[in-house]
Amino acid sequence: MIDAKQAGVRPPFVSPVKRQDFTRKVVPVSEIGTIEVPLPWTQRIWNSSLVRRGVILVILAIVWESYGRWLDNPLSFPTLSETLTSLWTDIASGTIPERLQVTLRILLMGYGLGILLAALLTTLAVSTRFATDLLSTLTAMFNPMPAIALLPLALLWFGLGVPSLIFVIVHSVLWAVALNTHAGFLSVSNTLRMAGQTFGLRGLRFVTGILIPAAFPAILSGLKIGWAFAWRTLVAAELVFGVSAGQGGLGWYIFEKRNLLETSGVFAGLITVMIVGLFVEGVIFQTIERLTVRRWGMHGG
Length: 301
Description:
The protein is mainly alpha-helical. It contains 13 helices and no strands. Helix 5 (about 95-125) packs across helix 11 (about 215-245).
């Protein structure tokens, strides 16, 4: 069957459908009713992440206390009340603050040095292809290696003491920060790169003026990962170096309490480690993220 178009015959003209005009009645605002209803006070409180986290901590505390009382074996698993008593006693006596100060001092030195080395490597990596290949190769080699595995080498090279601790911390921080920073640099759009080059930015000025602000979410993520690696590596390393070299950090505090069979003191040291981790993650890094990433509108959530 051949249609009219194929036969060369123009189809008959079909007038468009006419739609009836209509008007909407304007409703006064007073007749609309309530548009916004305030939430109940219970829901407003529950919307706070701080309150929800507090509820989680309370539930965990109840479970801990209940299990400790049911087990009734302070040497194996003390109750939460016994642990908090030991924690308060050692805080009041100045033992935990003194050990914490030693640990944080070493941590800041190693963490800062690791960030500095990571910044140098990534700056070189975005400058030449050889440096990019060098960073990729070193990261693939050393990033999967646990820092604890380097403890024997640290003993041979630096002896007992703070230099060995700083060495393992730098290893924990360097590759995580460098890997995330370099990935952030690679994700910067070509539009921003060409804009910086148009204004004559080259070398270090190009990195600090274009790449770092654009890749800061990835850099901040690397800093968080590096901090977590450094914190747990240092506490674990102090269990060896702290006892051997006489350095009184949190790791040594936990080791001493274990030797004295004061399990509540061991848990008190672990709680101190957790509190420091929560403070750094929930206060320091959250503040940095709020003042930078969120303010710049770069947050994905």
